[in-house]
Design brief:
binds zinc ion, two-stranded antiparallel ribbon, 2 domains, 92 residues
Length: 92
């Protein structure tokens, strides 16, 4: 009788300790999640090598980097395209 009572007491104690630990963990996680306002919906990280000016693709309107864009010289003027598809559309 006394032994079963002791077990019950230990069990209750263990449950309360687990609940407390779980509460602390939950609090830490919610605080760390709240303290980072920059972590919004997935934004593409700017790649380190994508340097150069941004120019507007005259076909689709996408801004492309002069370092990575497809270039097309036309009458002394250089145009920048996001893809060969846009370049071909522009020439057509
Ligand atoms: Zn384009």
């Amino acid at each position: 009788m006394l032994r079963s009572l002791l077990y019950l007491l230990l069990f209750t104690l263990a449950v309360s300790v687990i609940k407390a630990v779980a509460g602390i963990i939950a609090k830490v996680f919610s605080e760390s999640a709240g303290s980072s306002p920059g972590a919004g919906p997935s934004r593409p990280q700017p790649s380190a090598h994508a340097v150069g000016e941004l120019r507007k693709d005259p076909v689709c309107g996408t801004f492309v980097s002069t370092a990575t864009a497809i270039q097309q010289k036309a009458g002394g003027e250089v145009r920048y395209f996001c893809s060969t598809v846009c370049r071909d559309k522009f020439r057509a």
